[in-house]
Amino acid sequence: MGKLQGKVAIVTGATSGIGQGIVEVYVEEGAKVIFCGRREELGNSIEADLRAKGYDVTFVKADMSKDEDIKNLFDKTIEIYGKVDILVNNAGILRMLPMIEMDVEKDLDSVINLNLRSYFVASQYAAKLMGPGSAIINIASIGGLSGAPMMASYGASKAAVISLTRTCGKELAPKGIRTNAILPGTIFSEMMPREGEFTKSTMNMIPMGRGGEPREIGTVAAFLASEEASYICGTSIVVDGGMTA
């Protein structure tokens, strides 16, 4: 039996990269998973592939920067599965520009709306539906721990997610809902392609000498959602190959 057997999980931003890796690990651990993304054809393809392997998984098209899409995501989950045990807030974007060149609406507001605001709104919905033994997991970043050139909006959004995680950890714990964050370092994905110049530039800063795979975040997310992490609440786990050690 998997460590998430019988659990119903929502994973946002999961048609590629870290989100897809989490979905794959979750279904293998026995969870029923609703996952979302903006690319409908890709999402339907992932759903079909996983269903062909016998997993209970459903794709819902959603733009997490839109409140109506967030509401529909939760409505669909309750309609199909009747409950929510796990929420993984993962949807995010990165804008890399010098701070003085950033367009406030395009390069700041859009990043904050998806990387932070959607986490807040989704967590509100989840907290109203969840019961004891539930978990909210926020995918933040080591970029939220210290400053980095070209990443003003992204770093600020991820630092805010770390703070939100701590607050929700304290507020929701009495309801039996644990909130924690994962802070990935260099994880190969569309955001950080293997052959990308920025990705390559980080390799000499990683003591383990390699980037991470999306499923390596998935296994941590599965642990945090399981009973094995029943006393972990309001904290952040860094997964970066020793980069920030």
Q: What brief labels describe this structure?
A:
7 helices; single chain; alpha/beta; globular; Rossmann fold; seven-stranded parallel β-sheet
Give a description of the structure.
With 245 residues, this protein is α/β, with parallel strands linked by helices. It has one domain (8-238): NAD(P)-binding Rossmann-like Domain (Rossmann fold, 3-Layer(aba) Sandwich), CATH 3.40.50. The chain has helices spanning 17-28, 40-52, 67-81, 104-129, 152-172, 197-202, 214-225, and strands at residues 8-11, 32-37, 57-61, 86-89, 134-139, 177-184, 236-239. Strand 5, helix 5 and strand 6 (177-184) form a beta-alpha-beta unit. It is globular and about 45 Å long.
Global structural class: alpha/beta
The overall pLDDT average reads 96
Low-pLDDT windows of residues: none
State the CATH architecture: 3-Layer(aba) Sandwich
Oligomer: single chain
Based on Cα principal axes, name the global outline.
Answer: globular
- Specify the biggest β-sheet: 7 strands, parallel
> Can you tell me the CATH class?
Alpha Beta
CATH H-level name... which superfamily?
Answer: NAD(P)-binding Rossmann-like Domain
* Percentage of residues in DSSP E strands: 15-25%
The sequence of SSEs as H and E is: EHEHEHEHEHEHHE
Which range best describes the helical content: under 10%, 10-25%, 25-40%, 40-55%, 55-70% or over 70%? 40-55%
Tell me the number of helical segments per DSSP (H or I, 4 or more residues long): 7
Count of discrete domains: 1
Spatial extent as radius of gyration: 17 Å
Side-by-side strand order of the widest sheet: 3-2-1-4-5-6-7
CATH topology: Rossmann fold
